[in-house]
Amino acid sequence: MNAALRAQALCAYALRAYALRAYALRAYARRAQATRAYAILVDPVATWRRIDEEAADPAYLLAHYVALFALIPAVSGFVGACLIGVVVPRAGPVRQSIIDGLFGATFGYAAAFAIVLLVGLWIAILAPRFGGRRDFTRAFALAVYSFTPVWLSGVFLLLPGLRFLELTGCYGAYILVKGLPVLVGSRAQRSRPFAAATVVFAAALTLLAAAAQHALFARPGM
Asked: For a Cys staple, 186 with which of 43, 86, 111, 130, CB 3.0–4.6 Å?
């Protein structure tokens, strides 16, 4: 009996230790990604050089970076649409239903993954045409980190009157221009047209996803 109790205690201790270790690793990963996001905004050139040395696996970026920052517009949009609402003249505050809001936020969150994957593929395919090399791993890293301002600007979805500030996400185009020569080796003089083609493609995908989300889940009048 005593042996059985000791075995149970050891198992419980091992499970607690494993849970604490997993929590600590997740917390460390979140801090690391927040630090990387700050660095890419403040000093993109130096940060791109560090990213080029790392060559992070796409699956890691999806699980630890995209999964974290794509939550910002999804959650902010849900709160803004369902809890705060939009003031419509002669109708007062109009709010989306919680169910539609949850489905819409889930759709937008999943769309963020699809969009960044397609943009990474686009960069990899076009890179040789602009004097660069076809490398999906680095092209995907370019797409992911260049979307950082876009996802961060999603916080302005909380209040309808601040949604125009989402335009600050356009700073991602500058980040992309600085990263193209470093990660895919495109010619410096051709980085701007390369970035312009990529921004247009990304904007088209984002607008299509937003239109689909609005058509499927938005309340009329919102």
From this structure: 130
Residue 165 within a domain: yes
Alpha carbon distance 92, 86 (integer Å) = 8
DSSP β-bridge partners for residue 202: none
Count: domains in the chain? 1
Show the low-confidence residues of the chain (pLDDT under 50).
Answer: 18-20, 22-25, 220-221
* Residue 86, pLDDT score: 74
Whose CA is closest to 30, among 57, 87, 69, 4?
Answer: 69
Contact 122, 201 (CB under 8 A): yes
- Distance from C-alpha of 31 to C-alpha of 23, rounded to nearest angstrom: 12
Range of the domain at 59: 2-217
Distance CA 206, CA 203 (A): 5
In a domain, 222, yes or no: no
- 120-136 pLDDT per residue, tens: 999 999 999 999 999 99
Q: Is residue 137 part of a domain?
A: yes
In a domain? residue 152: yes
Closest of 206, 205, 203, 186 to residue 48, by C-alpha: 186
